[in-house]
Amino acid sequence: MPAVWQQCRSGVLLVLGCEALHFAFDFAKFGRPASYHSYVAKTWGLVLAVAVVVTFATQHVSIWMSAAVVLGVLSNAETLAMSLILPAWRRDVKTLVVAWRMRTDLLREQVEMKRAAGALVGLAVMLSLGTLGSAEMKAQSLQHVTYVGGTALQGNRIDGKLSIGTNDTLEFAGTSRLLIPYDHVITYESSSRKVVHVGLLTEGIWKLVAPWPEAKQISLSYSDADDHTQVVVLEMSRADEALLVEVLKARVPRGTSRQPVQPLRPLVSLKEKGPEQ
Length: 277
Description:
Elements: H1 2-30, H2 39-58, H3 63-85, H4 96-132, E1 141-150, E2 158-163, E3 169-173, E4 177-181, E5 185-194, H5 200-209, E6 214-223, E7 229-236, H6 238-251, H7 267-272
Antiparallel strand pairs: 1-2, 1-7, 2-3, 3-4, 5-6, 6-7
Helix pairs in contact: 1-3, 2-3, 3-4, 4-6
């Protein structure tokens, strides 16, 4: 239909140019095309399908074709903006707001991983010095740790710090103080906790537009001075949790008569077992 092409040529060429631009940028940055499937892109696809049908049926340019051209430019502009915002390739990004949240989460995870890697390197050096006896280990603390609950302390949600720098004792200091000798630790496990508790429908809608907020927890059981089994649940950042796990792996003795340390042990079973176990 030459008459239709003459009227739509500029808009169609503009859309194709936008497509070529964002494809080139995506391949340059991520090595593959974007796959965001945003709401704007889905709307453009529906309007474009209607525009093609109407154009072939009427042999004339309609408002549907103009709307398809405008949405095509907007969709490609949105795709390019998402690719500029995101530091790594992601799929199924519904809106620019979601893309920005993903960027924030990705950058925070990168910072936490770098912090954890640096802390682990420092810990390895300190453990080596402590093992060789050539230097005294410098005290190190995890500054933002919460005692969520358990049997060791009275009360819940106690904020404090956790000292991990000594060779023999794990110390929690807040409004209450707790000492856990490493050689008394029985088991420990790592898990994630939902920060927000809502209904199933609300949770499903939330996950469509943003990552679900979670916190890292360490559940630990140990024998106290009276040989009673106590349970402690601590909450902390992802980086601090990774560091604490490495400390426990390095310092909790395994060649003793106590039960070997192993991850993922249900807390209810710990309470049911007697002190002799």
